[in-house]
């Protein structure tokens, strides 16, 4: 839940109850060059959307582009004047919105300094990347026609909060999105979720705890029911799909790519970091395959 603002902060400032900026940087600031070795060309660092025909030759690049297009279409962002991307990573969604979907201006927020610095070295036209949390974000131009968020929601609540407090943090996010959107405006949200298979062997539990401690500190994966509850009375859910197999395949491809470039990865990030990422990516394949984790893609529509 939002803590009160520290002394001296503006009255409407809230303190992020999820992962701190330091925790986010622990992960995303490892090194752009390290991530570039195993992500696709656009540096999209979230589950892709693979084709229905299951073509084993499909490239990660194409599947990532399809995912961006799916969320853009869901949010009805094509041709929009202004769109916000909450947790924009290295900006692939901002570029897709303006370069392929005719969006007038795309704004992204991230907490990662190295993502912001990378973007500033070659900013794309009609895009803007801000180094701030969604909780601090105040749009300059009255709001947005559409909002998207991919793979950031997992960072919004700290581990170990009681369910009611987690839901309160998520509700704060939905309330903010509602403030930014017109009635009928849409939010496309993709996030990992807890899976409904809660039976786990010791190794699975150890791997999940390792990921929470060493890879994504201060973050907890939401349950679908918490997301639904938090959005009630503000948004209708007009689309939802669960694609755990798509994340198993995406993590598998990332793992293969990292292994193929291992010597370079070790040179950039060091042996320990590379070994940690190998364990995180290979165990993630299993977590999604075994339904210990799910991958939700929601479309919400503001009702009032
Ligand atoms: C897994 S990355 C996904 C990046 C991008 N959406 C993509 O698909 O490649 C998560 C992103 O969420 C951002 N993030 C996490 N918590 C945030 C917060 N409270 N406010 C803004 N961005 C946040 C991180 O900085 C990072 O850019």
UniProtKB/TrEMBL annotation:
GO molecular function: methyltransferase activity
Alphabetic keyword roster: Lipid metabolism, Methyltransferase, S-adenosyl-L-methionine, Transferase
BP terms from Gene Ontology: lipid biosynthetic process; methylation
Family recorded in the similarity comment: Belongs to the CFA/CMAS family.
Protein known as: Class I SAM-dependent methyltransferase
